[in-house]
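Q: Hi! First time doing this. I have a protein sequence and I read that you can turn it into a structure. Is that right? Here it is:
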Amino acid sequence: MKNLKLEPENFRGAVGLFPTKPRLYADGIRPGELGMALRTGINEQNQGEVEMTDFVKEYLNELENRMEKILNEQKPMLLRAARMVADQIKQDKLVYVFGSGGHSNMMAEEMFHRAGGFACVSPVFADAIRIPHIPFGERCAGLAPYILDAYNIGKDDLLILVNGYGINPVTIETALECQKRGVKVIAVTSTDYAEKLPKDFPGRHPSGKNLHEMFAVTLLTYMEYGDAILQMPGIASKVGAYSTFGNAFICNSIVIYACEMLVNDGIEPPIINSINVEGGLEKNQKLYAKYRPLIKWL
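A: Yes, that's right. Below is the predicted 3D structure, encoded as structure tokens:
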């Protein structure tokens, strides 16, 4: 492969000191031929290497198998959850979503102001338990009542409570507080951690309670102990996280089923349009006018 070099007069621009774009040249190669030169060089370098196992394909198969299992084994429960959501929307109420720890928090983001999702979703965010603060924030006792108070969540409100492990103090305290307040809850979680971790594990709520045992409407992601699903030779730990896929599939399945129910009831679902397509933002304005006074982050 021919030698590539970064022109000196552009180096400072390349590292961000100036806004100019660096120019990458190859000896004897015109700029339009650079991509071909790079690809050719990579192909030359790969000659003689051992053919790699397609672990990504295996990963995809594992993801598909788990999500198919959710649909095949839990469709009745998905429909119950969707009916709860549809009924809240028919009553002109919000649907709250709280991912009570670490990466589970992404489900509040996933369902909020999401193209193809409900405009009436109010995400429950608490900085103390978001990614920069794990695992300490989600293990802090006493936070849950204040989090619910901050969003005025009370009797007959609906909360989708998502936590992959279903054991940490913030999750269990939120569940207990919702039971105390008369909040309706859809739990999205798993059982493997709850069943395998000892009752005195530091990440558990002192009560030893498990989220999957606390509510009638509970959806399981089938996340395995350890989360990651691929075992690769030469690596002691498994790779390829699963939990976010399971959580997102369940949450979006609830939205889809609830939409179908609302249409069957003669109600147009309040669906957010992508603001990155022509006319999307304009279509959302009526929804913004209705829900901005009610949703903290909209």
